[in-house]
Amino acid sequence: MEEKRAVRISKFLSLVLRHDPGAVGIVLDDAGWVGVDDLMAACAAKGRRFSRAELEHVVATNNKKRFAFCEDGTRIRASQGHSVEVDLGLERAVPPDVLFHGTGARTVPVIMREGLRPMSRQDVHLSADVRTALRVGARHGRPVVLAVDAAALGREGHAFRVSANGVWLTDHVPPERLRLHHEDGARG
């Protein structure tokens, strides 16, 4: 499959499965699942045709593992990042002591004053590694990585969950649990 086509399908699936299922006239169940056949038919009806093989390729090769099939392959959902209400059924998990959040430099002053909030999504997204956070931050301009004191948040009762693709989720991070991350280990 041509890479450009895979990217177009992936972006369209992100829109439909994370933010606007009504764009193609489907309804997600409470856990975010929709039948593969229903999804493909609805997309085709809106002029967005793709084959089952193409869909499987997008799910299997997406470097962020944004989508997942159910065990028998009859349903699909986004792994996280929803702005529509879904319950992914993720159990609470104990995070590593430090997690990371990538953002653009222009948003740092507000974040350091107000903390991390989910904004249009259901959860704040955190990474277990700096490299992933840098990639995320680069989507928003000059990237800045913030270190999150997840150990302290856990002790304070904040709930963490980890999605199927390794993204750590929590409801918010107060500013006192954030610091600028520097590659040399210096504290910011």
What distinguishing features does this structure have?
188 residues, alpha+beta, Arc Repressor Mutant, subunit A, ADP-ribosylation fold, three-stranded antiparallel beta sheet, 6 helices, 31% helix, NAD+ poly-ADP-ribosyltransferase activity, RNA_2'-PTrans_KptA, Ptrans_KptA/Tpt1, EC 2.7.1.-
Structure write-up:
With 188 residues, this protein is α+β, with helices and mostly antiparallel strands. It has 2 domains: 3-78, Arc Repressor Mutant, subunit A, CATH 1.10.10; 98-180, ADP-ribosylation fold. Helices cover 31% and strands 18% of the residues. The chain is built from 6 helices and 9 strands, in the order αβααβββαβαβαβββ. The strands form 3 sheets. The chain has a 3-stranded antiparallel sheet. A 3-stranded antiparallel sheet has the order 4-6-9. A hairpin with a 5-residue loop joins β7 and β8. α1 crosses α3 (52-61).
Q: How many separate domains make up the residues?
A: 2
How much helix, percentage-wise, in residues?
25-40%
Query: Could you tell me the number of beta strands?
Result: 9
What is Rg?
18 Å
EC number: 2.7.1.-
Keywords: NAD, Transferase
GO molecular function, one term: tRNA 2'-phosphotransferase activity
Function: Removes the 2'-phosphate from RNA via an intermediate in which the phosphate is ADP-ribosylated by NAD followed by a presumed transesterification to release the RNA and generate ADP-ribose 1''-2''-cyclic phosphate (APPR>P). May function as an ADP-ribosylase.
